[in-house]
Amino acid sequence: MRKSFSILILIMTLAIVGCDKSTSPSGTGDCATTGTELTFYGSGGAAGSPFQNLQVVCFIASPTELKFSGKTLGPGVSTTAPAAYSSAYIFNDTAVQYKVFFKVDTLKLINVTAYPNTSTYYGQFDIAVN
Predict the structure, then answer these.
(1) Counted domains in the chain
(2) In sequence order, what are the residues at sequence separation of 6 or more whose Cβ sits closer than 8 angstroms to the Cβ of residue 121?
């Protein structure tokens, strides 16, 4: 009986871990409690894109830093936001630029382009479309 119970606990633990579609920005944990889960919608597999189409990533974003996949970028540089958003900030990585859009301090969208040549558009992170 005790061996069966131990196996059941192990199976349940594996099932719970297997259901986590994304990880927290530090690389572990549940995005629902630590960040915003966004889905990447790529532009036809642009060469050099750091993300795959429909890849799900957990972000923590503020005007001062952008955290995801164990990476922290910052500080953000304020830029003009379209009317649909209240603010926008740019975060630059070595070869990628992230333009982060907020609506009333809530992360809504992230455009991803090459850097420093930002004319190469890779795609955007957005709320998943079901």
Answers:
(1) 1
(2) 43, 46, 111, 112, 113
